[in-house]
Design brief:
mainly beta; 11 strands; elongated; 1 helix; six-stranded antiparallel beta sheet
Amino acid sequence: KKMNNKLILLLIAVLLMQFASADIIFSDGFESGTLGGWNLTNMAGANNWTASTTNPYAGARHAQSQPLSTTQPASVLSININTLGYRDISMFYYRRLVGIDAADEFQAEWYNGTAWTILEQTGGSGANDASYLARNFNFSSAADNNPNFQIKFECTAGATSEYCRVDNINISGLLMLDTMPPIVTINSPANKTYV
């Protein structure tokens, strides 16, 4: 009877875990003052992204690109985030685009280990945000349990008054449940008939 109660409690615990809130897998508000861990690439002559103190969404810093180039993608900020053991991956961030016109572009993408997928793109339309805008994306199952998951932000802008800014990036997911049933060995009492 005690064994049955323990199994019932275990099953209830497993079911409750399915409804648990998401865990933060990765977070960066750029408060360290560096872009440590991030990969920076740029077209020849374009400026890289920086950790800037000019008008962050929250805290003292944010990531900012002022590439001074219209060759796409002028400046790229990317990072690999291991999602092994997680499912239902999502990303939340704030972004503010300043003076981005039709010749410029901001783009956010994610990588599933095989191909990049665009999440947000301003190419051709331009953008001039009065304040930071919240962005939230839920990824397909290709992001689940993926050691090769990546995100990147691209900024292409030619004028000194044009910026791309991102802040408070969060990648979250749910812990994956172990669906393999346990192997149970009963040592006592022995499997025999007592007289």
